[in-house]
Amino acid sequence: MKMCWVLAALVWAYAGGAAQAGARPEEGGGGSVGEPRRASATAAQQGQRRMGAVRLVGHSLADDNGPFLGLGVSYFTALWRCKHDQGRLRQDLAFLAKQGFNYYRMLSMVGYYTAWEGLEIAPVTFRNRGGRRVEACPDYWEQLGRLIDVAFDEHGLRTQITIFADAQLMPSKEARLDHMRKLLEELVPGREQKIILLEVANEAWQNGFPGEPGIADLREFASFLNARTEIPVAITSNHDIASGFDKTYKGSEADLATWHFSRDRRSDAGWQPVYDCWDYAERLGFPPAISNEPIGPGSSVASEKEPIKLVMAAAFGYVAKLPAYVFHCEAGVFGKTLFEDTIGIGQYRPLLQLLPPDLPNWQRNDGKGTEAPL
User: Fold this and answer.
1) Model-wide pTM > 0.85
2) Distance from C-alpha of 91 to C-alpha of 88, rounded to nearest angstrom
3) Rounded CA gap, 241 and 69, in Å?
4) Rounded to an integer, what distance in angstroms lies between the CA atom of residue 317 and that of residue 178?
5) Over the stretch 129-178, which tens digit does the pLDDT of each residue have?
6) DSSP secondary structure letter of residue 369
7) SS3 for 234?
8) Which helix H or strand E contains 316, and what residues bound it?
9) Which residues on neighbouring strands pair with residue 167, listed in sequence order?
10) Which of 14, 76, 139, 215 lies 20 to 30 A from 355 at CA?
11) Are 78 and 144 in contact (CB under 8 A)?
12) Which residue in 316, 321, 322 sits closest to 362, CA to CA?
């Protein structure tokens, strides 16, 4: 893609150059764009606390401050840390906010797989895959509400709630519906502006929603949520069956499609994960897509440590009409490393200074059509 490489050069000259100049992540790096409209856009995206409920306007996210580029970060252990390690939680949230992130993606339940032993998030009592009994957290809803409040009130970060990470914790459909009902009735009221998105499930095929029956339930759950809240709703990223994107999202009640794009670095010198979103971003009959768990430093299956490719994945995504991009790294999964030590995490703030906040609503061009400028 010709336009991909042109954009790469522009973005790297502005955002990537900051790292080469030795700027620390929290300093942001980069310089003033200088053009008045873009300077104003920068102030709207970063310089003031964003307020009001998030809504979708075309392919752009917007709130009472106007349109903005969604820049999220995986923080799967956030709810566990809210209960067990408040100091680390606040340190992480403060750091992430300084890097320009405006929301984080958390898991509201986890623990079925033994890799999560010691980090379980348990709304109910359950037995994990290895047979170990895990007791329900007695103040689960209080902790979830506190997390959302601390993130937004103290750090300006909105929350993406991934409701069913390990839905095996509550296998019956009735229990799952009751859980969503309680979330909507007891947690959401008064916190609407603090929640950017409700996602039904994380990689649902391996987390309690297998096959076609699982997809049917997922679509039903999205309709259930969407009928009861104005908060944007997404379903999941589903990869176990052919045409998973189509079967999950086509004609659904979802407002957004939280998709996990390719992590295959074997082709195009490792650039496929950067441009893989193009074919999903603008499809008739489908909601706008988000790059919800892309390749990153320490990600599973394959990992990416080149800063130019990390920042380009976000930049190209916005140009391709994605409303949001989520930075995914090991520190945001199990938390065995620190966000502060993560490669590329300081590249995104200067990127937001460069790009217009309504960019996903611009007409895109892949450089192949007759209207292409090059």
Assistant:
1) yes
2) 5
3) 31
4) 36
5) 999 999 999 999 999 999 999 999 999 999 999 999 999 999 999 999 99
6) S
7) strand
8) helix 307-319
9) none
10) 76
11) no
12) 321
